[in-house]
Structure formats: C-alpha cells, structure tokens
Specification:
rod-shaped, single chain, mainly alpha
C-alpha cells in the first residue's frame, strides 16, 4: 500500500476550511474596506508627519550653522573694535589731524555750581 495517496479526513476538512474561508469571499472584502481605507489613511498621515519632522530637523541644523557663523563674526568684530579703541591705535588714527594726547587730566565743568553763584 502506498501512503502517498492516503489522506485523512482532518486534512480534507483543513483544506476545505482554508479554501472556503471568509477571506476569499467578495462580500467579506467589501465589509472590510473601511478598515483598509483607515489603515491607508493612517499610513499616509505617518509618512507626512515623518517628512515634516525631517524638514524641521534640516531647518534647525541650518539655523544652528548660521548662528555659529554669526557668533564667529560677532567675536571677530568685537575683538577688532577692542583693538582699534586702544590708546595707541587712536593716536595713530588722529595723528594726521595734528591731535595729540594731553598730559593734563580733563577739566570737569559743573553747571550746578555756576547757577548757584
């Protein structure tokens, strides 16, 4: 006896249940369409939000780079200004105008004392 052709009743019922299941019936597919549409909509929302998040991350990185460059520029301008406001640099700039540093301290004029006299 060849056992290859022998099938049990359990195997026949299993095949019958699989091929005759409600997953293959058209009526069953139509009843599941709203859930399928919901799943597709949720996937689209997920993809959209992921793209928006990536866009925001790129924008933040670009702004951080700009901020770093502006900090460098501020530091450079600030150091140049501090250097140019030293006494020796000011003296060099006003030398062509024939201005020189005074050895006397500045005179303070108090307007309140003048009004009282």
């Amino acid at each position: 006896m060849k056992y290859e052709n022998v099938t049990t009743t359990m195997e026949k019922e299993a095949k019958k249940k699989f091929f005759g299941s409600s997953w293959t019936e058209a009526k069953s597919w139509y009843s599941r369409l709203p859930y399928i549409y919901l799943a597709i909509f949720l996937c689209a929302v997920y993809i959209f939000s992921a793209h928006q998040a990536e866009k925001k991350v790129r924008e933040i990185q670009k702004l951080q780079n700009q901020l770093t460059e502006l900090k460098w520029e501020y530091t450079s301008v600030s150091s140049n200004w501090m250097y140019s406001s030293t006494r020796s640099q000011i003296a060099e700039r006003v030398a062509p105008m024939d201005l020189k540093w005074s050895s006397r301290p500045p005179i303070i004029i108090d307007a309140r004392k003048r009004n009282k006299k």
